[in-house]
Design brief:
The longest helix has about 35 residues, at about 1-35. The chain folds into two domains: about 1-105, no CATH class; about 120-164, no CATH class. Helix 1 runs parallel beside helix 3 and helix 2 crosses helix 4 (about 95-105). The N and C termini lie far apart (about 75 Å). The protein is α+β, with helices and mostly antiparallel strands. Strand 3 and strand 4 form a beta hairpin. The protein has helices spanning about 1-35, 55-60, 75-90, 95-105, 120-130, 135-140; strands spanning about 40-45, 65-70, 150, 160-164. The protein has a two-stranded parallel ribbon with strand order 1-2. The protein has a two-stranded antiparallel sheet with strand order 3-4.
Length: about 160
């Protein structure tokens, strides 16, 4: 009976190790493929993504996305391969450089502040209203919503305007 139990345990462990190797091999191949396509990402388990300086630095400086996953079984191998490939591209100390930049930014006051129209939303609506034709503003028959999508560059200039 003990021999049968040991045999079953041995088969189970062999199957489990083979399966784990297969998952790790798949993760390795996927990481290599993503790297060749310049699709860099790291993974962690989280319920809700949060604003994070480290994520910001990785994205801005190294084009690395951070993705939240349910399980790290597959992604532990994926991330280790991706890190090694990225070390070849950005240098072996790129993660240390990213951490140093994060520390520097987090010690800076208001380094990342959302843009705001001078005077806030009230002044922004006044600015927009002053530039709309006055006859349109007085009509009560207007039932259409107008959606405007804009980007504001670092100098405050409006770019990439889209009316939807």
């Amino acid at each position: 009976m003990r021999t049968v139990q040991l045999l079953i345990l041995s088969l189970f462990l062999t199957f489990r190790l083979t399966f784990a190797q297969t998952d790790c091999q798949k993760a390795s191949e996927r990481a290599k493929s993503d790297f060749l396509n310049s699709d860099y990402s790291f993974h962690s388990e989280e319920l809700l993504p949060v604003e994070n300086t480290y994520f910001y630095v990785l994205r801005q400086d190294y084009n690395i996305s951070w993705r939240f996953v349910d399980s790290l079984d597959f992604y532990a191998c994926y991330d280790s391969i991706m890190i090694e490939l990225l070390k070849g591209k950005y240098g072996v100390d790129f993660l240390e450089r990213a951490h140093a930049k994060v520390d520097s930014l987090e010690n800076s006051e208001n380094w990342r502040r959302d843009p705001e129209f001078p005077g806030g939303q009230v002044e922004m609506f006044k600015f927009i209203s002053a530039r709309l034709p006055s006859s349109d503003l007085k009509s009560n028959d207007i039932k259409t919503k107008l959606y405007v999508e804009i980007e504001i560059d670092s100098t405050g200039k409006v770019i990439n305007t889209v009316i939807r």
